[in-house]
Structures
1.
Amino acid sequence: MTAKDIRARIAKVPRVSLACLPTPLQEAKQLSKVLGGPRIFVKRDDLTGVAFGGNKTRNLEFRLAADKASAADTIVMELDQQSNSARQTVGCCNRLGKGTILILEGSAPENIQGNLLVDHLLGAEVRFASSRSEQKRMSQEAVERERAAGRAPCLLNDIPMFDEGSAIAYLECTCEIVEALEAQSLAPECIYMSSSGKGQAGLVLAQQLLGGFQVRGITATNEFDIPPRGAEIANRAARTLGLDLPVSPALFFNDDSFVGENYGIPSEAGNEAVRLFARTEGIVLDPVYTGKAAAGMIEHIRRGDFNSKDIVVFVHTGGTPAIFTHNHLWLDNHSGNLGGKTL
Ligand SMILES: *Cc1c(COP(=O)(O)O)cnc(C)c1O
């Protein structure tokens, strides 16, 4: 199967256009030089184009095309306070002329920053719930209130297309990577991405269909057993695309050794990766997801997993507003501009 065949199948899935695609694939020559490693390309999914970008904009093209969501004029969501998904959903709903109500777990912080600040700027109605059960109750209440006011609300958490949409979106993203490299007569050896299984399901599908490269997911959370979760999502997405392609959990390489203390808590290795990308390439990662994934890739490069001719691709899944909620991490400037020196 070719990337073109895959695209033809994806074209049959209901979709709304929201992201700027294809995103750029940039070679990171300074980063590669500092690491003394393989050729590194960064897939700039932080540049998907809606409210600071990120991977969720791709899956929202499928999610918001689902019948219930497309018929709605108001989208209600239960999410976390610093959710990248919430920010991108509000931005995308604005583009589609839909209102948004965010029911976020926790209490209003003193200093409103990062994604939460952007949610406000984008005009979402923001409410806080003290617990998961309170969150459920409040979202039901919001749905009923909207209905009583004559609007057509939809609770986005009820639309199962999140997982599958991410898998299909990242199958397409991998096609973009392969096509962009092919245009330079190159091919990837290994693709790295921060994933808790949804996006990686798409990368693994692409690997099975196109062949010839490794996929290494690095997770930012211990919440899931990723190989069975990823395989289940991949198989569902394959069925939607009419592909007879059983994917087994054994096909999922997902490294959980870069989570650090916990989800959402920056780690030393992750912060070093954020600084390194910034100071070698002018690329801003984030300390919650992409920094930790980049730390995994960097460690694998340093231990010698690749030779200098290999092509390694890092998918930048976004999350950049998180640098502002952790501002103290970037004020220590001791390593300065790298100027070609190794760290
Ligand atoms: C949500 C998110 C991820 C994880 O995405 P999966 O769909 O689980 O692959 C990775 N990076 C960022 C920046 C995210 O916001």
2.
Amino acid sequence: MKIVDLRSDTVTQPTSEMRKAMYQAEVGDDVYGEDPTVRALEDLGAQLTGKQAGLFVASGTMGNQIAALVHTKRGDEIICESECHMYYYEVGGLATLAGVQTRTIEGVRGVISADKVEKAIRGDDIHQPRTALICLENTHNRAGGTYYTPDCLKAVKVVADKHNIPIHIDGARVFNAAVAQNLAVARLTEYADSINFCLSKGLCAPVGSLLVGTSEFISSARRIRKLLGGGMRQAGILAAAGIVALNTMIDRLDEDHKNAWRLADAIANLGFGIDMNTVQTNIVLFEVQSVGMNAEQFANLLENHGIKCSQFGEFKIRLVTHHDIGNEDIDYVIKAITDIFRG
Ligand SMILES: *Cc1c(COP(=O)(O)O)cnc(C)c1O
């Protein structure tokens, strides 16, 4: 049976160009700072995002947790969105690793306003923790791949500067945010002190993320990466694929966005509960309650057609488009969902 895997863009296979680059990569011991391919990837990531330096890390989770560790002290508080990845999906790392507590704010489609951020910042009352960091997720995963505009980011930056608080962007899919708005990614990173982005999602690299920021921030981050066991040796084998990802896979994200929109439009026309305003990039999030099913029942019916999805809570299904999903796969999925709908 045909398998169409829409669980996540993390399932993407490395391209043949990546595999070739991995085979040919010049490598060295990166803990000694001697891997030229890792260095080249870190420089490329820093340059694209307009930052001084970059650090190749094993995963997005590792990059985010390192950022929290560098920016905060134990007992501090960080402001973040109520369903953000750092809070929701990182195994309580903010508590166990950085020892910080979270002040969660509900966003509008994942986006938190400068005004709400400002209201959540603590004063100098000695009873209160210190607000040490503001985290923004762009694009926002659980909200359905929604993005921040440069204006929203700038407004948060004005508030952050007023209170002297750094901003970290969890930009696992920040290139989707950039392509969807037809912007250079640097327009979305300029208001942040640090940004983490994934090479291993829509960009199709097999492994890794990049954390970028000032040279000073990155040298602290490099020590913390070692502490977490993330000092890798001939990691240029992996970084080589990351370079190909950044050089060849960004612009094509637009195809994933078009496929997501076509899929979402068909789902909306059938009468499923879907907020088309959330369909901004490569994620389609919809409710199956309106057709008298829960997420598990619906996922099982999709599975019968060879279609894999993610369940988000009791009634929501998430479908993610990516490089390994073509137009004909979208046609196939629309037909299957139509058949399921008609019973
Ligand atoms: C996937 C993801 C991460 C973490 O990436 P891993 O490489 O899976 O650890 C962080 N933030 C967001 C928003 C993500 O979607």
3.
Amino acid sequence: MNATNSLKHYAREKLAGLEAAGQQRSLIATDRLAHGRARRGGVDLISFCDNDYLSLSHDPRLVEAAVKAAYAHGTGAGASRLVTGNLSLNAALESRLAKMKGLESARVFGSGYLANIGTIPTLVGRGDTVIMDELSHACMHAGARLSGAAIKTFGHNDSEHAAQLMEEAQGQVLLLTETVFSMDGDLAPLDELAEICNAHDAWLMTDDAHGFGVCTMDNPAPIQMGTLSKAAGGYGGYVCGPTELTDLLISRARSFVYTTGLPAPVLAAAIAALDVMKAEPERAECALANVTLFAGLMGLPAPRSVIVPFIIGAESEAMRVSADLQAAGFLVTAIRPPTVPAGTARLRFTFSAGHKPEDVRAVSHALKECMAIV
Ligand SMILES: *Cc1c(COP(=O)(O)O)cnc(C)c1O
């Protein structure tokens, strides 16, 4: 008897369950191109669903920095940062990130996911409490669960609810929220949340994955994480905060200690991205102008970020509109439950600096046709 059979049986049963629930996911090979384009099945599409908000992933300055770093330092870091993988580019990137955030210090991680699952358990544990916005990203939920702390979720952006939870919380409290919410594109009430935290000596930690470099807001949080995989056009994650915290992460964050450091090309591209963000603020302005144009054309409320949800409601209808848009040359993903609440299946549009106003006009025209609202 070969154990492979029981393994296959197990996976087949699981897949059948997912398929029956309409929750089986699949991969589609996609090649990304410059200027907000992507190629699927040999067809070039204008993409309104990636997070490369400043269109930096194809910027020749980043590409050249990555290529040069690969020749100079190799394609891999070779070991964890605590062994020999702490390439000197890490310190350069970390000091740049801290400065940009206006915080004392920064620590770079392999990804944003790794930053959250390493940092949260470093800060709280059994007997403590994590209070988090219900729409917080899966990796904050994962970090909270790993920590062993009690987890309380508050209604989306409901700071009164957060304050109530604070009254009943045990031990040290860590309050988690996103700055710009990934599915809705709205902003967290950071000042209110900071006030609640300060009154209880609780720590506010924000996830700026969708704000970094494109939609910068005043942020009073002492702990600010984010990713280098979205507007920075590359890969990696970071945590900024007091030096004592970033020092502690070196010894205690398991997703920092027990994983290989980022490769030199990735680090060099990230540093080049920060240079471009600083030198060319017009890129963020362009992305914001594109989203504002789209919202105006579609009669939607003024957007607060470069993410716009277009709520359709029924899952099958969201899938149909997404397919029709693709046939018309536009890539826009349908987001379905359980990622979003039941009955709010939607298209999630994101806009970037690489889109031209004519691209935005074209997609809104196509959307109106698909929805039969012309
Ligand atoms: C994408 C994302 C992450 C994870 O970042 P990666 O660098 O892709 O691992 C974390 N939080 C939020 C809100 C995100 O959208």
